[in-house]
């Protein structure tokens, strides 16, 4: 089956769409088009079946085409397509928030709806600053991010993020931002399984930043529990615990960006539960609706929420929001996604599959050009040695070989990153890593 002629996808027909994070000219000269998806597989415009080892873009946690989610969106669209969440609402938004709060760590009971992970991060940063202002500490404005961190593409998220190529073209960014070092050292951590033993001391850099800048000026620290787009970097054992302790010591809010680790990726509803550390604020998106409708959220602790509720009852407590906050279709998709996760026991399947995933990933140690393997939950990165003067070239070539062999992986610098739907079977795990094995053996 091929639909390209039916869609008249000439170069001219492709030109109007300015694609994100894409080499537009190269893509439009040789487009890679998907026309359908079901379960673990995409169907290309040429009719090939491609195993999705990225869950779309870290987001289709329950697999593609879950009928319950599709039906919920269709039914909601026919019943109530839109209503503002400004000074009015609809019941399904409150039900969605209740269901989400039922998955969160204890004391994380309040959900502010947005439309993406980028909006969730910018919202969380604004809430953090406003929280301190509500408490009479409006001088706390400084934000702390981390090298290699990815927090979306809004100006707030870019400012606290730590991937230079993403930031380069858009400065100047927000002032009053500092960055922790990243937690990765190949010398000390190569081929670690899960959380590496080395590196907890790197959290103490927050102490140094606090002393340089005066801890009473710091509003919040934001980190991904597991660095995702920066290369799948699990936190060293004890690292997040030390960040939590330092934040508590100085009255700093701790924000976990769980856009990737939320909704089962580590075998628990949120990564904070799997890692045993509870932040003050969680950002989420992606698996929130299984990727079916754009949606994001900021989950606030009772402490944070209650600080906003101390003023006059008739006053707007947080002067912030979006036209599509709590959109009815997104809320329907969120509720249906949680139903699917629970009824199909998908988080437990992730936990079960993680052991085989880890073993198969680390079976690549010793293969040509493979210099590191990192994994946690159903996440992994295969680090590939670049050719001199060609950073990322080998990884990109390996990714293309995998795609031609029917497996979709993603490249991030010199790494192949993997994040499959959580419904994955043992046979599909084996196929992914055997395909990567063949790809790295084929590299020059």
TrEMBL record:
Might you give the EC number(s) for this enzyme?
2.6.1.18
Q: Which InterPro entries match?
A: Aminotrans_3, Aminotrans_3_PPA_site, PyrdxlP-dep_Trfase, PyrdxlP-dep_Trfase_major, PyrdxlP-dep_Trfase_small
Among its keywords, does the record have Transferase?
yes
One of the entry's Gene Ontology molecular-function terms is: pyridoxal phosphate binding
Q: Which UniProt keywords apply?
A: Aminotransferase, Pyridoxal phosphate, Transferase
One Gene Ontology term from the biological process aspect of the record: biotin biosynthetic process
Q: Does the keyword Transferase apply?
A: yes
What cofactor does this chain's UniProt record say it requires?
A: pyridoxal 5'-phosphate
Q: Which family does it belong to?
A: Belongs to the class-III pyridoxal-phosphate-dependent aminotransferase family.
Protein name from the UniProt record:
Aspartate aminotransferase family protein
What is the protein's species of origin? Phreatobacter cathodiphilus
What does the organism's lineage look like at the top? Bacteria, Pseudomonadati, Pseudomonadota, Alphaproteobacteria, Hyphomicrobiales
